Task: structure prediction
Amino acid sequence: MSPIPVITPAAAGMTPFGGMMTPEATPLPNTGIQMPEELAQPTATGSVQPTSDSFASMLGQFVSDVNAQQNISAQAVSALQSGQSVPLHQAVISMEEANVSFQLMVEVRNRLLDAYQEIMRMQI
Amino acid sequence: MIQILTGVDNSAAALTAEQTRLDVISENIANANTTHGVDGKPYQRRVVVFESALQQAISSDGSVQMSPVQVARVQKDDSPPIQVYDPGNPDADSNGMVSTPNININEEMADMISASRSYEANLAVIKNARTMAMETLSIGKH
Result:
């Protein structure tokens, strides 16, 4: 199992989904809820600058977590193959964890893509 | 780091412990006829002692305590060596009696089956946890 390269959210085409979280451009009435400045004011291009808690950065964090799992599993397997005293089951379990978290990432991507395509099909 | 297969940590610890148990049983069987050990005395049977290690699992709503198993120690069985009459043996005493290890092969085989079944049970838990995770991921698939 080769480690997957780190995919930045922008490279993976995640920015359209980041844009989905853009709040309405009209100023909010005085409801007492304070919007963060960068979220309340979308930039001219319509995309949101990734903040620490934006959806895109959360997704990026998730992708790098999955990547870290893959790296751990690759390390365990190569340690096992090079004769270090790694238990067999530990290597296999880390491979399984990497596999399941990768599947989870693929599922998230599928749902996002479905939602995006649904919106693109929308008749206006 | 995302935690997907959480309960598997317990099973993995159990697998390691059972593996150690099997290693010790293999040592016992291999040395069943060793009349002259490292210390000059017949080999003494080894027994694995398991203990549960209290491990604090971090969770957002209060702490869930998990206690995976681990090998506390491998200790010697102090029952007396089995005396066998074998005057031709170099380790025989003046009466022709040889002290052979206090190992009963049948007992070791039974222990081995027990260790093997425990290992299988823990593997089944891991397999189940994985199946549950994958089934959960397929919610809403069409």
Notes: Chain A touches chain B at residues 62, 65-66, 68-69, 87, 89-90, 93, 96-97, 100-101, 103-104, 107 (CB under 8 Å). The two ends of chain A are 45 Å apart (CA to CA). Chain A is about 55% helix and 0% strand.
